[in-house]
Amino acid sequence: MAVALILVLVAVGSVAFHLWSPWWSTPIASNWGYIDDTINLTFWITGFVFVVILLFMAYCVLRFRTRPGNRAHYEPENKRLEWWLTGITAIGVAAMLAPGLVVWNQFITVPRDATEIEVVGQQWRWSYRLPGQDGRLGRSDVRHVSAENPLGVDPTDPQGQDDIILDGEDLRLPIDRPVRVLLRGIDVLHNFYVPEFRAKMDMIPGSITYFWFTPTRTGTFEALCAELCGVGHAAMRGRVVVQTQAEYQAWLVGQRTFAELGAAARRAQASAPPPERDRYEEASR
Amino acid sequence: MIITLLFLVAVLGFLGWWLLARQGLMSKPWLETATPATILDTGASPLPTAKIGLGVFLGIAGTLLMLLVSAYAIRMDMEDWRPLPWPQLLWANTAVLVLSSVALHRARAAARQAAREEARSWLLVGGLAAIAFLAGQVLAWRQLAEAGYRPATNPADAFFYLLTALHGLHVLGGLVALARAAARLRQARIEALRLSIELCATYWHFLLAAWIVFFVLLAYAPVFPWLYAICRAPFG
Amino acid sequence: MSEIVPGADHPIPHDHADDVELYHPHSWITKYVFSQDAKVIGIQYSLTAMAIGLVALVLSWLMRLQLGFPSTFSFIDPPSYYQFITMHGMIMVVYLLTALFLGGFGNYLIPLMVGARDMVFPYANMLSYWIYLLAVLVLVASFFAPGGPTGAGWTLYPPQAILSGTPGGQGWGIILMLVSLALFIIGFTMGGLNYVVTVLQARTRGMTLMRMPLTVWGIFTATVMALLAFPALFVGAVMMLFDRLLGTSFFMPALVEMGQQLRYGGGSPILFQHLFWFFGHPEVYIVALPAFGIVSDLISTHARRNIFGYRMMVWAIVGIGALSFIVWAHHMYVSGMHPWFGFFFATTTLIIAVPTAIKVYNWLLTLWRGDIHLTVPMLFTLAFIVTFLNGGLTGLFLGNVVVDVPLSDTMFVVAHFHMVMGVAPIMVIFGGIYHWYPKVTGRMMNDAMGKIHFWVTFLGAYLIFFPMHYLGLLGVPRRYHEIGPTSFVPDSAETLNAFISVVALVVGAAQMLFLFNLAWSLRRGREAGPNPWNATTLEWQTPQTPPGHGNWGKETPPVYRWAYAYGVPGAARDFIPQNEPPATAAGDGGSG
User: Fold this and answer.
1) Where's the Cytochrome oxidase subunit II copper A binding domain (chain A) (predicted)?
2) What integer is the mean pLDDT of C69-85?
3) C490: how many CB neighbours lie within 10 A of its CB?
4) 3.50.50.60, 2.30.40.10, 3.40.50.10300, 1.20.120.80: which CATH number matches B2-28+48-232?
């Protein structure tokens, strides 16, 4: 009796927790509502199965509990029943997989008009690069990384000269414009993760990965690192500011390009070397 | 990686065939109550258990081999790959390993005819040849290292050292088994002796085959682009 | 349908062993320490695994203290937190679960259940244990090495695993970890050969494969998988050792670490991930399949009913085993591998749900119309079904590639895999220990202590891991020593974290009661007799309890029927042991 009751309680309690607990996805701020829909669909199907099976188990425990003189029913198998159950399960699985694959296809098909931007991860901070007037990012290579050129932009590539480098600043994006986020790591694996955008992908040193999304809500969003990258992993935070087109353009004109930064750095280097900082202290701040 | 999967498909396919065809995987065991007179056969193989054990072990070693080959092909595809100069000594080492394998083969034949002394001589030849092979491999390492090709120089060099080291360790393990067989040569029953020599011979042939795979891979990998594509796919 | 012909061209195994083939211990040392008896080796494996498991349990306490009450305990700083999670994960997955199921249960049960006298290669079997112990000691040594153990996460992803930004990356930690894994694999291979070949070759007369208890099927299939999957980890570990010690670039691309150009170049971090998960995913089933098998036997014995759909259960075990080799990259959906792989691996992953679901249905259908005895092993079995079902269903989220994108690397993943391959298999381990303890020691474990242990463990574990999914949904990443102030995590999540930590401490403490029960019952437990659960399988039919050396006295038992003759109509008792000859020539197990 008690066992059956507790099994029912587990089922009911889990559903109640799901419905009424205050912990749920953050309000979405990108075009990936389909992902949320697929999650919800999966919750409904799996939740139904979970409750049915637990209630059936509770029923069995209650009804077929041992009694004097009772003997179990001897039935080695029931092919019909087993094939039916297999078939129904296969349908349920297909009902979750099919929409999942359709949405995945959208996820990996980047729209032609998407703006390319770059997010660079390194222990333990984020930097960003936006294409300049020409709308293209210049080449980059980890071998060019230096104090003056923290992102390793190829200094000989003319397309890179007008790129806008955001080092230690927030990333800004205009609303309702699809962006293809190119991801580059220059030391270890990182993962650029903004919960409200739903999309994420690892960065792998030595190659460039990507994902795409369209911001659909203005505001400031927090970016985290979602792939273990060393002791400062939890401190690797950034911010993404989604603005209206007008605000974004106004901000953009004030930014300095790679070429301008280079000139500034050469002047600064002539005067004083940068101070040594303890890198963990820096990261955890 | 595909080649690893193909290998596993072969292994699992064999197991599946064996289960289905030989072991009655479709039978309904609850209908098969036996009496003392009609007790069922277990379907165990009439081969000696040790041979089955060696077979299973070679399956594992084969998986290891395939994984190394896959990793090699995937890594080789990257741009920084610089093939290393092929030490001519390795031809001699290969010949010595072939000799070792042939000697073991002769030892097996001798053991089957219960010719203890002959088996002993061939075991000795095989063992010495295997030791010579190992010495030759170490020498090849030294030649390469002196010429500036160290593990860290290039992934091609790194793979050369890795594959030869793992292969060499397996040869060493085989030598331990061989030494044990040789030590019991005089006292052991001829059946036991025959079995342990047969096991050594089978293992030696495997070592030779594995070495030839490595040799072709290290020296001639681009010669068979399709094979190389199978190894690399789908990550190429 | 079946081609089994009695005794035609295959010799029926001898009913008695040649004396020279049996190993005989000559002293206390060779009997209890350097023993070649699979039963002793099984106990050695189990005790060692439980001891190292205790270390992992304490590590989990420390982690939970930090997560529940951040910045409260000065002795837990970020580097040590990462060391705790890494060692906790690695110990639990490899050194506890794999070793306990295959080395512990496998060694003890395989020969007894198939009616063999021992494993077929006892010497290699003994070496297997001692190499395992050495691997454990090397692992433990890394706690005392300069710089401490590695903090790279149990997945040990390069490049960070061997760089200075990770605890133990440039010290001894990662080296000892990799060496220990390589040793474990070598030791396991020796044992695994034994388990496979014993099942193939040493079954007693009449024990066809389809008459084997599902426990043996589960352990056998898991061992075959482990033997084929561990080489991938071995290759990965050796190559990473080369990278770390010799400066090769198998996995290391050109990189700038803290403004410093390193001399690595050209390697592929993702190659390691493929090798790791080529091992790592089968590993999940290496732990799950023995659990499936053991649960099937427990549920059948304690519900006094034949396992429902035995053939389907066997096929499902074999099918899951084979399929699990082509799903590995579902751990890598957001790793940056080619996006087209997502379609393939999502499909294979969700297909594997079907045979798994069949197993769950058949367990339930075994309960249905049964005669359920709510013993402690049965309670753990029920708890296994609940937690495995829960964890399996959340697996359908993570396996479905696009759903995985927001959830991967969050606490949702942590909750999922703890439920499905942490809590669920451990429920089976407990159930199995309560079930077979009387055979191993001759005494029953204390029932009252068992029930307290059960309820605290089951309900506690559920309370820990069920709400944790929702933290992940919220976006809380895994492997963070503290979330810190964020814009999207409400303060109430901190309260939930503190609650989970308190429950975790209580559940951990309840395991001390279990250990006490183990020790107490050894002397004070009720005498069990040879077959306290009225079970049909051979291990309960040994002439002595605990079974003596060689297991069976003069002759190994002949097997006349399948392993699940419970509740057979017309039989005198509600169970018929496998080695009990039929009452009449026509047989009495043939209905249905």
Assistant:
1) 112-254
2) 91
3) 13
4) 1.20.120.80
